[in-house]
Design brief:
By secondary structure, the chain is mainly α. Helix content is 72%, strand content 1%. The chain has 16 helices and two strands. Strands 1-2 form a two-stranded antiparallel ribbon. Helix 5 packs antiparallel against helix 7, helix 8 runs antiparallel to helix 10 and helix 10 packs across helix 11. The longest helix is centred in the last third of the chain and has 28 residues. Bound molecules: geranylgeranyl diphosphate. The site of geranylgeranyl diphosphate (GRG) has 18 residues, from helix 5, helix 9, helix 10 and helix 11.
Amino acid sequence: MSEKVISSFDFSSYLSKSKVLVEEALNQALRAEEPALLRDAMRYSLLAGGKRLRPILCLASCELAGCDTEKAMPTAVALEMIHTMSLIHDDLPAMDNDDLRRGMPTNHKVYGDAIAILAGDALLTRAFEMVSIRTLGVPSERLLKIVGELSLAAGAPGLVGGQVVDLESEGKEVDLKTLEYIHLHKTGALLRACVTCGALIGGASQDLLDALSIYANGIGLAFQIVDDILDVTSSSEVLGKTAGKDLLADKTTYPKLLGLDASRKRADDLISKAKSALDPWKVTATPLLALADYITNRDR
Ligand code: GRG
């Protein structure tokens, strides 16, 4: 029975249906923003496409915990807002100084540095509004935990901390431990929050939260290893962002430290470990298992 359920799961249709729901919710979320220039800048980057992996992970985790995904949608939107904010800020001249993101000119190239910074700030703060004010039918103690998770993921213990160590490491010899620190904070922390927040909304048991924590750590690191690999092996056209950037910025990456084959193997091992953590939920975790595979098999 379980094997049949797994093999009949149509991941591509799951992904496209989830994306449609997420795109609609993202579009609705920023309709009434003022002033208009700020709203345009926020919408420009938030609605520019992207894989929407973070909100989909949140919805899938909520579903695994046995809850209606509608209740998790404001949090899923909040996670994509935080992610988009980090991309806008990361692309600024003072950071990675990039011109291309999601196949379009970066936010500061269109709106200027000041508005790009403010659009990022407004998306970050709006994310907390989505969870605390715009979520319906979820007990407030769960929402409080989610606000805590998002604060940790976005701040010094997460994205900001990882970004600082990344900036400090440019042009230096970096060992595997520091590289892992950067990735687990800069990229892994938010992916982990997606899974944890979805599960918290669904009222997951401690056993499930613990298993999801192992799953999230594995996919978080694997995601960034694949990102490093794609930076070397893919093109700007396919990625929608500048390829070959890590080499130009003299960044330490997994391919640089381990080589391409060993990096790919490390990503695959992390994904198998992440999936094994969900063995007791094998049937109902099908979307999360398929999302883990998608992370290593993606081409952008
Ligand atoms: C101001 C609170 C605050 C944080 C900003 C700039 C910064 C601190 C952190 C940088 C974080 C960052 C840009 C990490 C890279 C993560 C990454 C691999 C992004 C690409 O994600 P995809 O491939 O992109 O999911 P799409 O476009 O598909 O969503």
